[in-house]
Amino acid sequence: MFEVLNYSIGETCAMDMNLLGKTALVTGSTKGIGKAVAMELAGEGVNVLINGRSREEAERTVDEIRKAFPETSPQAAAADLTDITQREALFEKYPQVDILVNNMGIYEIMGYADATDEIWEKYFRTNVLAANALCRFYLPRMLENNKGRVIFIASEEAVMPSGQMPQYAVTKSALLSLSRSLSRLTAGTEVTVNTIMPGPTLSEKVQQIIEGIYAADNIPFAEKEKKFMAGNLPQSELQRFIRPAEIGKLAAFICSPYGAAFRGSAVRMDGGMVPTIY
Ligand SMILES: NC(=O)c1ccc[n+]([C@@H]2O[C@H](COP(=O)([O-])OP(=O)(O)OC[C@H]3O[C@@H](n4cnc5c(N)ncnc54)[C@H](OP(=O)(O)O)[C@@H]3O)[C@@H](O)[C@H]2O)c1
Q1: Does this model's pTM top 0.90?
Q2: Does residue 10 lie in a domain region?
Q3: Which residue segment(s) compose the domain that 233 sits in?
Q4: For residue 46, what are the CA distances in angstroms to 14, 22, 23, 91, 139?
Q5: 273 occurs within a structural domain
Q6: Are 84 and 219 found together in one domain?
Q7: Which of 162, 167, 207, 224 to pair with 106, CA 20 to 30 A apart?
Q8: Which family does it belong to (predicted)?
Q9: Tens-digit pLDDT profile for the chain (278 aa)?
């Protein structure tokens, strides 16, 4: 009765989330989860601002979205969000958004002893401070308009650090606290602030890693995925990577009027990685 959703990257199908004509800035939306969130929102009639450092990739993504959803007006919003000057130029160009999805983030498995102060600072600047600066600009405007949605994309590492990347896990835990704090400021308004915690998700980068690990095996990707999950992520109940579109659909729902009662929530879509009740 319940079929396995086997979206390929970038694939989508429309729900009706009552978001027609809204504007959304999705950070880091030229690839992976961010792109899927942007695609799902565009599928709901949202005008999406596509961000990444590469202008070329942002414009290519905009073209793709415009072709798929010609009734919407996607725009390129290329900027390195860790750079104050580029951030401010972005604010000047797009001073109002209805939806802000703080998706952009960096991650890498790294031995604790190898992560220097510079690396820790880079992770904080990229994964926490950039998102915070965007909130400091857009959230007061949303509160003034008495409408808006902010979503942070954290990770299951926020609540279940694997030990494989402490410099990353700490930043994702920080986002949970930031999201909860900011939600406190929305009391009595139609603005919401929430966090999604995806588990292992099949972005292009993750797919390349898996293809690389099993480069010598002449088997289809589905088999490689199965082998990887069984060998490396046995705690996943899903036993496949989450598809970016699945995270995208959840984000669209939380952004919609139907998601108004999500307030300061940390929503897990982790394939069952975290074994606890809360
Ligand atoms: N994939 C997973 O398994 C997984 C699981 C849990 C949580 N997450 C989280 O989900 C988010 C997205 O992950 P993903 O795997 O989809 O990432 P990804 O495929 O590496 O994509 C990252 C995006 O961010 C952009 N970006 C990177 N640095 C930037 C900067 N300084 N300023 C602006 N844009 C920048 C990239 O474009 P450019 O390179 O052109 O800048 C790209 O569009 C991250 O926060 C990650 O921590 C991922």
Answers
A1: yes
A2: no
A3: 202-241
A4: 12, 5, 6, 19, 19
A5: no
A6: no
A7: 224
A8: Belongs to the short-chain dehydrogenases/reductases (SDR) family.
A9: 455 555 555 555 557 899 999 999 999 999 999 999 999 999 999 999 999 999 999 999 999 999 999 999 999 999 999 999 999 999 999 999 999 999 999 999 999 999 999 999 999 999 999 999 999 999 999 999 999 999 999 999 999 999 999 999 999 999 999 999 999 999 999 999 999 999 999 999 999 999 999 999 999 999 999 999 999 999 999 999 999 999 999 999 999 999 999 999 999 999 999 999 99
